Amino acid sequence: MGAVKNYTAVLFDADGTLLDYKRSESYALENALESLGLDSQSTDYVSCYRAINKTLWGELEKGRLSSGELRVLRFEILFSETGVRADASIFSRMYLDFLSQTGFLLPCAAEVLEYLHKKYVLILITNGFQEVQYSRLKKAGIFEYFDPIIISEEVGAKKPDEDFFSETFRRVKDVEKSEALLVGDSLSSDILGGERFGIDTCWYNPDGYENRTDVSPTFEIRGLSELYSIL
């Protein structure tokens, strides 16, 4: 646990940190499947999809896959593994439309942001898709807390790449990276990216996973309300 500093800005990841991505993912996938006339409960589509999606997002973070390729490939693989006969491109658009309708927040997210935005510059950083993330942030009622909002697809770079963070701080006025704290749930995306760029980091780890990587967050918390003791 690092020493508490006088921060002026907080960079928040979106999915898995503020937004309940698992709940949103299940909602979107189940509704998209039902639109095809498939019973989302008859086959464990959600678990299968999550495993596929996690692997492909890992490939995207490593620069081995583009966001455009990921959009469709994950459903091509899902349909191949589950025997579904459908157009993956059309299904991808349907899934993202349902996903954009969700605004589920994780515990304490709204309360923490309401408190922090009065004292700090809040910046939203996400590797999600532009049209989906803007809609979800607005539906969740937290869009107004952030300035700026940095979305990988929009800026042409992604976490953990240095270009993503360089562009982020280019868009932020009067904030040095030494004054910023990054809060995120992903060691490989958020924490690694912040560490490489020289930003203090806070690993949001609600499930208490063991850190088996070489990445060393400055802080680690189980709940977002623990930020009160850091900021």
Query: What is the average of the pLDDT values?
Result: 94
* Corresponding CATH superfamily of the largest domain: HAD superfamily/HAD-like
CATH class of the largest domain: Alpha Beta
Sketch the major β-sheet: 6 strands, parallel
| Low-confidence sequence ranges | none
Q: Report the radius of gyration as a whole number of Å.
A: 18 Å
Number of separate helices: 9
Q: Could you say what the CATH architecture of the largest domain is? A: 3-Layer(aba) Sandwich
Shape: globular
Q: What is the CA-CA span between the terminal residues? A: 14 Å
* Side-by-side strand order of the widest sheet: 3-2-1-4-5-6
Q: What proportion of the residues form beta strands (DSSP E)?
A: 5-15%
Q: Which structural class matches the secondary elements?
A: alpha/beta
